[in-house]
Amino acid sequence: MEDWPSREQLKSVGLKGRYELLGLYEGTPITHRDQGYNLALPDRITIFQKPLEAQCGSAAEIKREIVRTVKHEIAHYFGMDEERLHEIENGGGS
After folding, report:
1. Which region holds residue 79: left if phi is over 0, alpha if psi is between -120 and 50, else beta?
2. What global pTM score does this model have?
3. Of 23, 38, 74, 82, most Cβ neighbours within 10 A?
4. Helix or strand holding residue 25 (H, E)
5. Could you list the mean pLDDT of each consecutive 10-residue stretch along the chain, which spans 94 residues?
6. Backbone phi, then psi, for 48, in 5-degree steps?
7. What Rg do the C-alpha atoms of the chain give, in angstroms?
8. Which of these, 77, 80, 72, 27, lies nearest to 47 by C-alpha position?
């Protein structure tokens, strides 16, 4: 967990406002790995505390949002893109 996303992290996902990014998966999704992957740095999921606190109104809401954010970032690890995740989160996934 980090307090805030760095400028580089925001830039990597095309965001400018530091309040917009709640979590970030950094790594190579398993769907894009090849035989040379064993030399790569470990994958990493970071949760950003301050944006979560700013967007949530209670401790219970923070807990729910952390669970949702971690699931979202794990889905990136499995190769899902933002469009597909939004589809699933909005009830359009099968």
Report:
1. left
2. 0.86
3. 23
4. strand 23-26
5. 97 95 96 85 95 96 96 95 87 68
6. -105, 115
7. 14
8. 72
